[in-house]
């Protein structure tokens, strides 16, 4: 059985950890304090490596390097075509090192290796090729002003970008942040999540091999309240981009405001509805709703974590959703055919089990799962609740784990009202064959992404971001460039006075 298999020795990853230091001014260096912190293998809770722990004085050094690279270095001034070629070379190197990057990603994060190697690293490469494509397509405008003036806008890089990323998609979050910032000619100080520092350090080294000038991309590993807060409140950081929880989003927005009013992009939490309409093919709906929730161990900000099912198909849906969860293959993420690995760490693991207990206590029906799996590491049984009510904690708060909550609805107006009755507004799934139903829902849902008969489609060109407390601004696509550009209006009389 799965539980027995989890007692076996974990599979040894086919990669060495080469980089554990901070990357500042093009060089790997220790933290000034000499401190390190352990990064853990979520399969066992054992130490993979000790990583340099950046504090505010290291953030100062990294920002100084980024400042110098922006003010005096070649990067913002080189031709767009040269910048594009460096990004394309970096993408080639990332592609060449697909398997090492995938192994580091899985080792540090716990996600299935096949998902890393076949989906996420190829997406990473695709993202950087996409952004390389933008580097030489950033145009200003000419503006028809009143009077005899020639007026133009220059779209200039904003300067030093501070970027803070989470642990659920370490490399993809790295790409969503670094891609547009570099395409626009900015320099960067990026703080990885303390749970997953390894893969992005390796990727950053490849950018330097590709010819990125020193100081353009600086990497600081460390914790939120120290390194993260130092970056968010730094007087010499010109722009902040953050992905993480809504609570921490509020903190960094305040730090940015209290320091130098740097503009902030936020990509925060969600409690996304997945709406299964009465005309749905139930088997297909079950499969997609399962994917929408359980993908990446349920650790997605946009997870379809409120599965609303029309009363006409509800009983059949619940039966089949339970059967699908029971079939989910959980195990060592380095094994082939595994659908679900361990959760990221003990804190998230405990939090998920607490939400499961709260679901049971509040009267939801536990259809399957509900407990840990195995005796070591952070594996959680795929869990399904039916008879969930909107007011229960499991229907209101972000669980960030493999826990599906199924709710019943009667008609469209009702489900629109209930789906929108949340402070979040990140994404929604709609499953129907009826075009009128699809159109009604897509326009009524107050969310940044509606996936109709699909979910988690994340092409580089599709903008992503939240309404309401799910965030501010958009990442990916053309919209993301705005985050990293300043607009300068240049006004010249047509004739000298
Ligand atoms: P999670 O609870 O999922 O770990 P967080 O929002 O706490 O989400 O973490 C996302 C990122 O924000 C991580 O890189 C983390 O280190 C960082 N972070 C956490 N607290 C702070 C803070 N007070 N200031 C700046 N960054 C922070």
Low-confidence stretches: none
Overall spatial form: globular
What is the tally of helical segments?
A: 15
Task: Describe the strand arrangement of the main beta sheet, using strand numbers.
Answer: 14-15-16-13-12-17-18
- Give the biggest sheet: 7 strands, mixed
Question: Which small compounds were modeled alongside the protein?
Answer: adenosine-5'-diphosphate
EC number: 1.2.1.3
Pfam families: Aldedh (PF00171)
Keywords: NAD, Oxidoreductase
Active site: 267
Walk me through this protein's architecture.
- This is aldehyde dehydrogenase (NAD(+)).
- One of its GO terms (molecular function) is aldehyde dehydrogenase (NAD+) activity.
- The active site is at residue 267.
- Its main location: mitochondrion.
- It catalyses: an aldehyde + NAD(+) + H2O = a carboxylate + NADH + 2 H(+).
- This protein is α/β, with parallel strands linked by helices and 497 residues long.
- Helices cover 37% and strands 20% of the residues.
- The protein has 15 helices and 20 strands.
- It has helices spanning 2-5, 56-71, 80-96, 98-109, 113-135, 170-183, 198-209, 224-232, 246-258, 282-294, 314-327, 346-361, 393-396, 412-420, 435-444; strands spanning 22-24, 27-29, 36-41, 46-52, 142-143, 149-157, 160-164, 187-191, 217-220, 239-243, 264-267, 272-276, 304-310, 365-368, 383-386, 403-409, 427-431, 449-452, 471-472, 485-493.
- A 7-stranded mixed beta sheet has the order 14-15-16-13-12-17-18, with helices on both faces. It has a 6-stranded mixed beta sheet with strand order 9-8-7-10-11-19, with helices on both faces.
- Strand 7, helix 6 and strand 8 form a beta-alpha-beta unit.
- Helix 3 runs antiparallel to helix 5 (113-135) and helix 3 (80-96) crosses helix 7.
- The chain starts with a helix and ends with a strand.
- 53% of the residues are buried.
- The mean pLDDT is 97.
- Bound molecules: adenosine-5'-diphosphate.
- Residues 164-166, 191, 193-194, 223-225, 228-229, 232, 244-245, 248, 251-252 line the site of adenosine-5'-diphosphate.
């Amino acid at each position: 059985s799965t539980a027995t298999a989890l007692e076996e020795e974990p599979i040894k990853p086919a990669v060495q950890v080469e980089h554990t230091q901070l990357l500042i001014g093009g060089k790997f260096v220790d933290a000034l304090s000499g401190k390190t912190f352990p990064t853990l293998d979520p399969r066992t809770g054992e130490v993979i490596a000790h990583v340099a722990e950046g504090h505010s004085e290291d953030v100062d050094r990294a920002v100084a390097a980024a400042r110098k690279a922006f003010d005096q270095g070649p990067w913002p001034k080189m031709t767009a075509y040269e910048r594009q070629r460096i990004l394309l070379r970096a993408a080639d190197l990332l592609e060449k090192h697909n398997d090492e990057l995938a192994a580091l990603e899985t080792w540090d994060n716990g996600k299935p290796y096949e998902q890393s190697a076949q989906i996420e690293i190829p997406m990473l490469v695709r993202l950087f090729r996409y952004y390389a494509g933008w580097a030489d397509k950033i145009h200003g405008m000419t503006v028809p002003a009143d009077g005899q003036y020639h007026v133009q806008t220059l779209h200039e890089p904003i300067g030093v970008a501070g970027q803070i990323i989470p642990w659920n998609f370490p490399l993809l979050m790295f790409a969503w942040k670094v891609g547009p910032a570099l395409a626009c000619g900015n320099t960067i100080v990026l703080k990885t999540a303390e749970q997953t520092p390894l893969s992005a350090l390796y990727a950053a080294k490849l950018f330097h091999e590709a010819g990125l000038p020193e100081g353009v991309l600086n990497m600081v590993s460390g914790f939120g309240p120290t390194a993260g807060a130092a970056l968010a409140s730094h007087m010499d950081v010109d722009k902040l981009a953050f992905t993480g929880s809504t609570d921490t989003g509020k903190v960094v927005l305040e730090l940015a405001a209290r320091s130098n009013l740097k503009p902030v992009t936020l990509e925060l939490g969600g409690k996304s509805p997945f709406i299964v309409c009465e005309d749905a093919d139930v088997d297909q709906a079950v499969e997609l709703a399962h994917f929408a929730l359980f993908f990446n161990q349920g650790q997605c900000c946009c997870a379809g974590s409120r599965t609303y099912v029309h009363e006409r198909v509800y009983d059949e849906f619940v039966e089949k959703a339970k059967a699908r969860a029971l079939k989910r293959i959980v195990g060592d993420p380095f094994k082939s055919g595994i659908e679900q690995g361990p959760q990221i760490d003990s804190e998230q693991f405990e939090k998920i089990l607490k939400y499961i207990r709260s679901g049971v206590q509040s009267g939801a029906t536990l259809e399957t799962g509900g407990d840990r799996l195995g005796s070591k590491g952070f594996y959680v049984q795929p869990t399904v609740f039916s008879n969930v009510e909107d007011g229960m904690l499991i229907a209101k708060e972000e669980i960030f784990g493999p826990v599906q909550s199924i709710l019943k609805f009667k008609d469209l107006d009702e489900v629109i009202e209930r789906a929108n009755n949340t402070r979040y507004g990140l994404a929604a799934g709609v499953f129907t064959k009826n075009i009128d139903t699809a159109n009604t829902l897509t326009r009524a849902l107050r969310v940044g992404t509606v996936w109709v008969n699909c979910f988690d489609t994340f092409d580089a060109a599709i903008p992503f971001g939240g309404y309401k407390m799910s965030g501010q601004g958009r990442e990916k696509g053309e919209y993301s460039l705005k985050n990293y550009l300043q607009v300068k209006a240049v006004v010249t009389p047509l004739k000298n006075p």
